[in-house]
Amino acid sequence: MTLQKKVLQNLDIPYSYELAKRMEQYRSHPTLGYRPAGSKAEFETGEMLKTEMEKIGLSEVTKDAVTVDGWEFHKAALSYTNAAGETVSVELGAYQTTFVTDGPKEFSMMYLGKGTETDYQGKDVRDKLVLVEINQRDEWWINYPVYQAHLKGAVALIAVQSGGYGEIDDEALNAQDIAGPEDAPAFSISRKDAAGLLELLRDQEEITVTFDAESRVTRNCTTYNIVGRIPGKHPDRMVLLSAHYDSYFDGFQDDNTAVALMFGIAKALRDSGFQPNNTIVICAMASEEWGVVDSNFDWSTGAYEQIFTAHPEWVGKVIADLNFELPALAHGTRARIRSCYEYVSFLEEYLADLPNLTIAYPEETAVTSPIETWSDDFSMAIAGVPSMVNDFTGGSFMETHYHSQFDNDEFYDEQVYRLHHELFALLILALDETAVVPLQFSPVVQRIRKGLEQCREICYRADVAGQLGEKKRVLLEKIEELETLSDRALRRCREEYEAVEEYNRNYKQLLRDGKYDEAEGLFRQTRPLEQKLLARFKQEQDAFVQIDWYGNVLYPHEICSANLRLLGGAVRNLKEQRLSSALRKLYQVDNNAYAFNFDEEVYRHFTDYVFHQPKDRLKWGYGRLPEHENLYGTVKQLLQKEKKLETLTGSGMKEMDYREEITSLEHACSKLVVSLMNIVQQMEKSVTEIFEL
């Protein structure tokens, strides 16, 4: 029997399911669950997982201490008297903030619409609870209305999801990372429970409620990532499996089933007698959902600390991180492996050679790229560890069940879960038969090349030409030089990958022929090449990987050229007296979409905290956002003129004077032109160094 068949036969899906369910017993809140960062419930879960690793035969099981900001959420109970004179009791969810009533306490409550600046006009909310409606998927994140309420003097904000998340049921509570300060308290309420309060608040501006809450954030706590190993012949060459064990609510899908999948695969590898060439590392991560106060990058904290502080020496030794998220439900019509660009070729070849696996989707498994910021694989990748994750962003689950008390086993799909066990167990075997990390860098160069096409297009746009002036010729020359370099880099990448494939084919054949001494000789011979490739991967992350204000992974010239296109288009629209079109473009520049909804102090806080905090507060986002273009004042002026136009409707006035705003936006364009020239020049230098041209 082949090793593949032995491993597949030893996969015990009921074991994984039972372990996922067992994790639910540890909870901070007695009825809702929650295993947040640094909490007692998270600690107890980690202790159980450590014992389980030892039980299934993993070696060198350790608890790696990492520092995070911690949160304990024990209760949030609200009661009030309805119109019929009956007492109504409501259970609330919470966000990572501090608010302790020390027993039931009476508060006045007011309804503030969506909690924007205009909603507070003429309202005094000092020392009161405010109830607002939010849609975090289609509008703004929770931190904006929460901080707005805090600045207005409210004791706490209670948010009801009007859409975007928790859509499965009107009783659904939703939880997300707060991305704001701990002293601006926030809680969540279901649509069903909010309806009773809103009914009373329709007839009166304020009502009296009783609130009993205990939610505490403590900075700089110690938590633990739990690590076990299957030792390999080459202890310094590792394949890492990772998933997180903190959760909102019961966290069955997110991420109990992922942790249990790792254990299930590790158990099957052990039970099949697998003796790996490389050490297989199983890491149950703490503090993924949230782990740092008042940061735009407050999730994936445990993973960031694991690779940047607990084990930075893993960089250059771990050839792949296989991360897992929500693997026991169907996401769309096919399973997908979301990978860093460099692993795409290998994974496509791997999928093409697979035996028949469990049929769980109507379409075949595919590879997609690049990785995204929403899971722990991004923290690993920017540190220099090539990473991938089972893709979990398709389908409706994220809008319906995700981060609610309805994340439970009612949505469990055993066939999908089995397929993910099979798919990644066999991937570990395939990686174990490589002598050289199979990284193909061509897609990175192709993305650079594609971004340059956008830059070239900018040079010929009439609405940007005025700001380019004499710089147009210089910029076009720089673009052409980088295109030429990219073409040379592309040829080199393809030639190198052909050599890597040849080494790996030979190594695999030697292993299968039982020529272990020759295989070991080939392995030793290729160490310098592998180290060069892993070092290049890290260089690429530092040179090219940036993110926008919404967490999307982009390259620096893409962000800059997109902003130039938007600003130039807005200038053109204003000259054409098309104010609404101009505003729609300006809202897409950086985080200016929020500029018109909240006080300037709110806007500035959530802009400045991205740039003016130390690395240990910004984690994986440190230095990855480009220079910000602050359009707050310009947008506000344009909105005032829009209101004036509305009042003048029918007066015969057709034009408005936008010269001041046009001048301001043209100045912003000129700055971006200089930035783009510098970016292209720096990328030329990086391509030359990274690809040794």
From TrEMBL:
Record-annotated Peptidase M28 domain positions: 225-424
Keyword set, alphabetical order: Coiled coil
Gene3D superfamilies: 3.50.30.30, Zn peptidases
InterPro entries, per the entry: PA_dom_sf (IPR046450), Peptidase_M28 (IPR007484), Peptidase_M28B (IPR039373)
Pfam entry (one): Peptidase_M28
SUPFAM superfamilies in the cross-refs: PA domain, Zn-dependent exopeptidases
Coiled coil: 472-513
Keyword Zinc-finger on entry: no
PANTHER family given in the database record: N-ACETYLATED-ALPHA-LINKED ACIDIC DIPEPTIDASE, VACUOLAR PROTEIN SORTING-ASSOCIATED PROTEIN 70
Protein name as catalogued: M28 family peptidase
